[in-house]
Each structure stands twice: as structure tokens, then as C-alpha cells.
Design brief:
This protein is of the alpha+beta class. It has one domain: Multidrug-efflux Transporter Regulator, Chain: A, Domain 2. 65% of the residues lie in helices and 14% in strands. The protein has a three-stranded antiparallel sheet with strand order 1-3-2. The protein starts with a strand and ends with a helix. The C terminus is likely disordered.
Length: 96
């Protein structure tokens, strides 16, 4: 079972309109569930990872398309997360 929008908004702290814009652009594809007359979105674990990563890059000032591309590159190459912080830390040590 996936995560519904209210829980996701609290978990990631992304504005609802930005979340829905990611969906509108096709960057994420939540399951849409209808119960009675109400519609709900349910986000998979993969969606959540994408949203977290895209949102991280959006907060850094990147445009949506670039943030999405960077997120996809990062998610497809998890070692990149481990290498970049270490390289950054090494540069700080050299500067001291």
C-alpha cells in the first residue's frame, strides 16, 4: 500500500501545488484511487524517492526539468551520493 498525499506532504514538506505540478509534467505517476465520490492519490516508494530527490534540487534553485534530470541521474547511480560528499569533505580539508 502506498502513501497518500497528506502523509507525503508532511513527510517531505513540499507544497501541494509543486507536488501536483510534478505529476502534471509526468515526472511522477501516483496511483489514483476512487472511493465513493472521492479521489485519492497513492504514491509508491519509488515516487517518494523521486519526489524527495527532485524537491532537494528544486530547493537548491534548479528549474523543474533540470531538477528532475539531476534526481534521475542520482537515483540511477546511488554511488554518486556517497562519492560527492566525500569529495566535498576532502576539498574542505585541503583548504584548511
Amino acid at each position: 500500500m502506498g502513501i497518500k498525499t497528506p502523509e507525503l506532504l508532511k513527510m517531505i514538506d513540499i507544497p501541494r501545488q509543486k507536488l501536483y505540478y510534478l505529476e502534471m509534467k509526468g515526472y511522477i505517476k501516483p496511483n489514483k484511487i476512487v472511493i465513493g465520490e472521492k479521489g485519492f492519490r497513492e504514491y509508491s516508494e519509488e515516487d517518494v524517492k523521486k519526489i524527495e530527490c527532485i524537491w532537494k534540487h528544486l530547493k537548491k534553485g534548479f528549474k523543474y526539468k533540470v531538477a528532475y534530470e539531476k534526481a534521475m541521474e542520482e537515483l540511477s547511480n546511488p554511488q554518486m551520493n556517497l562519492i560527492n560528499p566525500l569529495q566535498h569533505g576532502d576539498k574542505q580539508k585541503e583548504e584548511r
